[in-house]
Design a protein that fits this description.
homodimer; 490 residues; alpha+beta; BirA Bifunctional Protein, domain 2; Rossmann fold; Translation Initiation Factor IF3; 3 domains; eleven-stranded mixed β-sheet; 27 strands; globular; ATP-binding (chains A, B)
Chain lengths: 490, 490
C-alpha cells in the first residue's frame, strides 16, 4: 500500500485519501452525494446511539415527518424561505415515460398541481402540524427529534463536510414561555458540547453566531466550534432559539393557564454526518484515522500471526478466541481477524488506517511467554501484557487512550487560541498559524465582509462566556464592547 | 373517550381510528405522506433493532446510498424501469424564486441537466456502484443492507399499509454463484419468517409469487403472507432472487477462481413500516392495540391510584418506584405514569388503547395487602400478585402473553386455511369467510386477472412447501399441477 499524502504536504488531499482508504465513505455517481460504506455507517450509527440516549434522558422523543414539503408551506416563514429556496430539490412531476419506445422522458401529463421540495430542514412541515397538535398549555412542551436525511444543493462538496444530501438529527421543540425555550436551546448546546468532548474527544467553544449568520428564521443561533489540525474552524452543531417566528408564520397559539391565547415559543437544533469530518481532522495522523475508543465501532482487533493463506496454528487460534470472548464479556467491541487472504503485515496497516484504538497480535513468541503484543493506535507504542491481566488492562487502556486523544486535542487547540489587536498581526496569524483569533469587531456586517474578502477569515461566534472588554475594531477602528472569534473555516 | 368503531361494524374505520387514537401515526398535510408519532416511531425503532441484530448475526452490514437516482441509471434495467417510472418523484429544478416580489415559483434557469428520481428502491444506484467495487471473487459476497426512506407515488393510501413515502430496510447482495444467491434469498425469507412469528407473533406462509407478480427485474420473488382478522391477506416481506439481471444491466463481472470472467449473481429484499399495519390488524381488538411484549416499546405501565390533580400518597409513590426499579433491572421496559392531569380511569383507557401488555395499578388496598393489581391486555384479565413475587412473575407473564398472542393468531389463521375445488364454492368462501384458499390454477395471467375481476381475490403465492397434486383450474378447468393460495388482500 502506498502511504497517505502527508498532512504537511497537502492537508486537503490527505483528508480525501483518509476518508476513502479507511473505508468510511466515497462519492457516488450522483454529483455531491456520498456513499456511507459499512465502516462509515457503523461509526455514524455508534454516534447516533450515544446522542440519541442523551436526548432521550433529557425527555426528547423521536418522530418522523414527511420528506417532501409543498411549496406553499415552504414559503410561509419569509427569512427561512429566502435562504433555503436558493438551492433545493424541486419535484415537479410524478412519472417518466418512454419516448419513441426508447428514451425515458418526464411525462408532461404528470405535472404536479403544486411543486414539492425535499426538506432542507423540517421547520415548515413540522409547524404546520404543531398547529393541529397544540391548543392548550397542557400540550406543551413538545420535545421532538427526528433522525433522517435532508438535502441542500451545494456547489462545492467535500466528503462528510459538505454534501448535498446529509444524514442528521433535527430537534423541534415548542414551549409556553420564552424562558423555557431559551433554556432548551442552551440545554441542547450543552448536550452537543458533552457529546463532542466526552465521546468524540473534540474540545469546542460555545458561542452565538453574529446576527448576519444566524439560522434563517431564528432569533439567535448558538453553536459549538472546534479547531482542526490545520488551524481552521469547523462548526460542529447549532441550536437555534426561534422565538415566536414560526408560531406566528404558521399561526400556532395556545391557551395559557389563565385562559389567554399566546403564540408558542420554539427552538430547533441539529448535528449531522459533518461531525465525522471534524472527527477525522481533529485526531488522525499520516498513518490514517485515529478514533476515540468511546465511538470506535471496533475498539480492539486481534490478529493471529501466521503465514499468508494459512490458518493460524491451533494454539494461537484458541488463545485468540479466549481473549475475544473475555473482552466481549466486558462489553468491549472486539474483532478477531483470521482471514487467510491477507498477511499479518497487511492487516496491521489496514487497522492502523482504520484507527482501531488497540491491536492485539498473537504469534508463537506470545504463546511461549503467555503474553500478547499490544499496539496503541494513538501513540503508536507497543507494550506487552500477560494473558491473565488482559481483561482488566484493556478497559483501563481504552480509558487512557480516550483521555490522551482528548488531551492532545485540547493542547493543540489551546496553543491556537490567540488574541490580536492590529490588523497586520491579525492577517499574519490567520495566514500562518490559523486558530481562533479573539479580536474586536465593530458589529457591522460590512466590516465582517471586508475582513472575509481580505483574509478568508469569518466571525465564527461571540463566545458565550465572553468577558466584556472595551476596544477598537481591528478593521475599522470603531469602538467595540467585546472580542469575537475569527477563523478560517470549513 | 368515545369507544372505537367495532371491527364487526366497519373494519376499515376501526383500523384508521386505532392508528390515530393509539398515537402511532396520522396523515400529514402532504397527500399520501404520514407522520410517525413518538409511539409509532418507538415501535418501528424496536422492530428495527431486533431485525438489524438478526441481519448482522448473519453477516450483513449497513450502508447508506444516495436518495436521488439520475434518470439515465434508473433506465438501465428495462423491466425494473417500466414499473417504477409509473409513479415516482421527479426532480427537475434546483431553485425557487420570487415572482413579482410575491409568489414563489420554480426558477426556470435552475433546470437540471439530467432529471433525478427519488429512490423507489435502490438497485440501480447500488449496482452502478458495485461495478466499481467488484473485480474478483475475493470481493464477494457483498452482503449490504440499508435502513432509510423510499418513495412510490400511490393513488390510494392507507396509514402504514400504503403510503407514498415509507421507511424500510432494503438488502442488496452480490454473489459468485447462482446457488449461493438462491441460498441467501431463502436465508432472508427465513429471517423475515422468524422475525414475524417469534417477535411480532404473526404466523406467516412462505411462498413464491406467480411470475406476473414477481418484483420487476427479478427472476423469482419469495414472500411471506399473513392473514388479518378480516380474512384478507397482507404481504409482510419479500426476498428476490435477481439472477444476473442487474449485473448484466450494469455490466458487473468478476474474475472467478479460475481466472474467467462471469456476471455476478444477486438478491434484494425488504420489509417496511407496512409491517406495523399487519401487527395492528393481527392482534388488536375493539378496545385498541394489542402489542406482543417482545416488540412493545413499553411492556409494563405502573399507575398509582389517586385523585385527579393530586400527587399519589408517599406510600404508593415509593412502592411504585421500587417496583419500577426492580423491573427495569430485569431488563423490562417500564413506564411509571404519575401525571396529575389525568385520572387513573383515563389512564387505564389510554394504555389499553396503546396495547401495553401489562398494567400494574397500586392504590391504598394494594398497599394494605402488599399486593398489586395486574391487568393483562391480551385477555383483559385481572390478577393479584404480591410485591415480593413481582420481579419473578412479570417476566414469566410477559412470556406467557407473547405465546398467547401468537397462539390466538395461529388458531385464527388455521381456521381460515381452506381448500376449494369449485368456482361457486370459491366465490362463496372469498366473500364470506375470506382466508387463504388453496385452489388449482392453470398458470396463465389471464385466468388470474379474470378471477381478480370477478372476486377481488388474487394469487398470493405458490406455497414453498407445496405438495404436487394434479387437478383442474378452478376457473378454466384446464389441468394444473399444484394448488396456489388465493385471497383478497391489502
Amino acid at each position: 500500500m502506498n502511504p497517505l499524502t502527508k498532512r504537511s504536504e497537502n492537508y486537503s488531499k490527505w483528508y480525501n485519501e483518509i476518508v476513502v482508504r479507511s473505508g468510511l465513505a466515497e462519492f457516488s455517481g450522483v454529483r455531491g452525494f456520498m456513499i456511507l460504506k459499512p465502516y462509515g455507517y457503523s461509526l455514524w450509527d455508534r454516534m447516533k446511539t450515544i446522542l440519541d440516549k442523551m436526548l432521550k434522558l433529557t425527555g426528547h422523543q423521536n418522530v418522523y415527518f414527511p420528506l417532501l414539503i409543498p411549496k406553499s408551506l415552504f414559503s410561509k416563514e419569509k427569512e427561512h424561505t429566502k435562504i433555503f429556496s436558493e438551492g433545493c430539490a424541486v419535484i415537479t412531476h410524478s412519472r417518466l415515460i418512454k419516448k419513441n419506445q426508447e428514451e425515458l422522458i418526464v411525462d408532461p401529463d404528470s405535472k404536479l398541481q403544486e411543486e414539492l421540495v425535499i426538506r432542507p430542514t423540517s421547520e415548515s412541515i413540522i409547524w404546520k402540524t404543531y398547529k393541529r397538535w397544540i391548543q392548550s398549555y397542557r400540550d406543551l412542551p413538545i420535545l421532538f427529534n427526528q433522525w433522517g436525511n435532508a438535502l441542500r444543493w451545494e456547489m462545492r462538496t467535500r466528503l462528510f463536510l459538505r454534501t448535498t444530501e446529509f444524514l442528521w438529527q433535527e430537534g423541534h421543540t415548542a414551549h409556553s414561555t420564552e424562558k423555557e425555550a431559551i433554556e432548551e436551546t442552551i440545554k441542547i448546546l450543552n448536550i452537543y458540547t458533552n457529546f463532542s468532548e466526552k465521546f468524540m474527544a473534540i474540545p469546542v467553544l460555545q458561542g452565538i453566531k453574529p446576527y448576519m449568520d444566524k439560522f434563517s428564521g431564528s432569533e439567535k443561533t448558538y453553536c459549538i466550534e472546534a479547531l482542526m489540525q490545520d488551524g481552521k474552524a469547523l462548526q460542529m452543531g447549532t441550536s437555534h432559539f426561534l422565538g415566536q417566528n414560526f408560531s406566528k408564520a404558521f399561526d400556532v397559539t395556545f391557551t395559557n393557564f389563565n385562559g389567554e391565547k399566546e403564540y408558542v415559543w420554539s427552538t430547533s437544533w441539529g448535528v449531522s454526518t459533518r461531525l465525522i469530518g471534524g472527527l477525522i481532522m481533529s485526531h488522525s495522523d499520516d498513518k490514517g484515522l485515529i478514533l476515540p475508543p468511546k465511538i470506535a465501532p471496533i475498539q480492539v482487533v486481534i490478529i493471529p500471526i501466521c503465514y499468508k493463506k494459512q490458518h493460524p496454528p491451533t494454539s494461537i487460534h484458541e488463545i485468540s478466541i479466549k481473549i475475544l470472548n473475555s473482552l466481549e464479556k466486558k462489553g468491549i467491541r472486539v474483532k478477531y481477524d483470521d482471514k487467510t487472504i491477507w498477511t499479518p503485515g497487511w492487516k496491521f496497516h489496514e487497522y492502523e488506517m482504520k484507527g482501531i484504538p488497540i491491536r492485539i497480535s498473537i504469534g508463537k513468541n506470545e504463546i511461549q511467554n503467555e503474553k500478547v503484543e499490544i499496539f496503541r493506535r494513538d501513540t503508536c507504542e507497543k507494550i506487552y501484557i500477560s494473558w491473565i491481566n488482559l481483561k482488566n488492562s484493556i478497559p483501563k487502556l481504552l480509558d487512557e487512550i480516550q483521555k490522551n486523544i482528548y488531551k492532545k486535542a485540547v493542547q493543540r487547540t489551546q496553543k491556537l487560541i490567540l488574541k490580536s489587536d492590529h490588523y497586520n498581526d491579525f492577517k499574519h496569524k490567520i495566514n500562518h498559524s490559523g486558530g481562533f483569533i479573539f479580536a474586536h469587531w465593530d458589529g457591522t456586517k460590512n466590516t465582517g465582509k471586508k475582513i472575509q474578502e481580505e483574509t478568508e477569515a469569518t466571525i465564527r461566534c461571540i463566545p458565550i462566556s465572553n468577558e466584556k472588554e472595551k476596544g477598537k475594531c481591528i478593521y475599522s477602528g470603531k469602538p467595540s464592547l467585546q472580542r469575537v472569534i475569527f477563523s478560517k473555516s470549513y
